């Protein structure tokens, strides 16, 4: 029942890009926009996100996983993106797919449209995400015999952007990540790792999946959507 | 699952007293289990000489960065850039000694 389709978010500003969206759409009432983790954490959890959508489909919930500009299969350059642009794309996707709820995981929570009914699974702030990527770069540099300081890199990054752990981040993205916080409101249901059991998959050194965690996450989300 | 040893959640309690060596060892093994996706038994077998960074191909710089961030969160320590060198990351014993030294500082 999964279908790859396309959608057209605003990018570059004033124009429209063409991006891929994975949809489990049977025109049902409960409709969920999935905002996955960002950057490296996205790669590690992609399979798990789609597995969760399959379980949600079985539980009677339609779900949508749109590529944001610069992510996954997008042709748009990542270095031109910012959290502001991604928030706008998330807002457009929420409206376009007539979603009723959002499920945001880790850094995805930084993009969730405010005041929408949402589930935030282990929401992350921007700063620690940026810090981990800076650290990965300084560790790799040290291994290669170069000495780089995270502080100096950050100063450079705020002005010119930076390549961090293989991700080409623009200056706007770096500046916004530094103080981005998930917008947790009255309509936000927080989901913690203990509720799913197992260990967080974004921590794994290699991409991995866990059907039991996907089942538990889908059950919590479906229950919240079907009987609010 | 034992309630006192929940994967992904094992952390030092925020008591005023410094954590014991045994506690630090348990937390560190739990973090490695989460990062390497190993079961409890495999990680229990780690000795001081077990090779980590540079020995396990899956433990790349991004995975090490995640591991250090988890150590900060779960052990309540701060790890500076200058602290991170090949020696502390190379073996389980090196990482444990580093975590113990940092916990005394914290």
Summarize the structure in words.
The complex is a heterodimer of chains A (about 230) and B (about 110). Chain A is α/β, with parallel strands linked by helices and about 230 residues long. Chain A has two domains: about 1-125 and about 180-225, Rossmann fold; about 125-180, no CATH class. Helix content of chain A is about 40%, strand content about 20%. Chain A has a seven-stranded mixed beta sheet, with helices on both faces. In chain A, strands 7-8 form a two-stranded antiparallel sheet. Chain A starts with a strand and ends with a helix. In chain A, about 45% of the residues are buried. The model of chain A has no long low-confidence stretch (mean pLDDT about 95). With about 110 residues, chain B is mainly α. Chain B has one domain (about 20-105): ACP-like (Non-ribosomal Peptide Synthetase Peptidyl Carrier Protein, Chain A, Orthogonal Bundle). Chain B has helices at about 20-35, 40-45, 60-75, 85-90, 90-105. The longest helix of chain B has 16 residues, at about 20-35. The chains are: A alpha/beta (about 230), B mainly alpha (about 110). The interface between A and B is medium-sized, with 29 and 29 residues.
Describe the secondary structure blueprint for this structure.
The complex is a heterodimer of chains A (228) and B (106).
Chain A: E1 2-7, E2 19-24, E3 31-35, H1 39-58, E4 62-66, H2 83-96, E5 101-105, E6 118-121, H3 126-143, H4 150-160, E7 162-164, E8 167-169, H5 171-178, E9 188-191, H6 193-196, H7 211-226
Parallel strand pairs in A: 3-4, 3-5, 5-6, 6-9
Antiparallel strand pairs in A: 1-2, 2-4, 7-8
Chain B: H1 21-36, H2 40-44, H3 61-75, H4 86-90, H5 92-105
């Amino acid at each position: 029942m999964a279908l790859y389709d396309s959608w057209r978010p605003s990018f570059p500003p004033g124009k429209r890009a063409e991006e891929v969206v994975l949809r489990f759409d049977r025109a049902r009432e409960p409709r969920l926009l999935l905002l996955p983790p960002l950057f490296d954490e996205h790669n590690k959890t992609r399979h798990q996100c789609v597995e969760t959508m399959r379980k949600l489909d079985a539980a009677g919930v339609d779900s949508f996983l749109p590529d944001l500009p610069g992510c996954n299969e997008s042709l748009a350059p990542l270095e031109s993106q910012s959290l502001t642009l991604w928030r706008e794309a998330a807002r457009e996707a929420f409206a376009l797919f007539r979603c009723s709820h959002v499920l945001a995981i880790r850094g995805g929570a930084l993009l969730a449209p405010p005041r929408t009914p949402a589930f935030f699974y282990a929401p992350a702030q921007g700063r620690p995400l940026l810090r981990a990527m800076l650290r990965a770069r300084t560790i790799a540099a040290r291994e290669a015999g170069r000495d780089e300081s995270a502080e100096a890199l950050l100063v450079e990054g705020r002005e010119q952007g930076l390549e961090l752990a293989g991700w080409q981040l623009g200056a706007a993205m770096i500046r916004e990540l530094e103080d981005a916080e998930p917008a947790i409101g009255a309509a936000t249901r927080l989901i913690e790792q203990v509720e799913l059991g197992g260990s967080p998959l974004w921590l794994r050194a290699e991409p991995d999946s866990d059907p039991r965690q996907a089942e538990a996450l889908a059950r919590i989300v479906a229950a919240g959507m079907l009987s609010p | 699952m034992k309630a006192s040893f929940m994967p992904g959640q094992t952390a030092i309690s925020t008591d005023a007293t410094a954590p014991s060596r045994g506690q630090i060892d348990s937390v560190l093994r739990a973090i490695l289990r989460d990062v390497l996706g190993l079961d409890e038994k495999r990680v229990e077998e780690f000795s001081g000489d077990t090779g980590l960074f540079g020995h396990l191909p899956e433990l790349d710089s991004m995975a090490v960065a995640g591991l250090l961030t988890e150590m900060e969160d779960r052990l309540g320590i701060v790890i500076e850039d200058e602290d991170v060198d090949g020696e502390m990351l190379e073996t389980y014993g090196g990482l444990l000694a580093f975590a113990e030294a940092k916990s005394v500082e914290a």
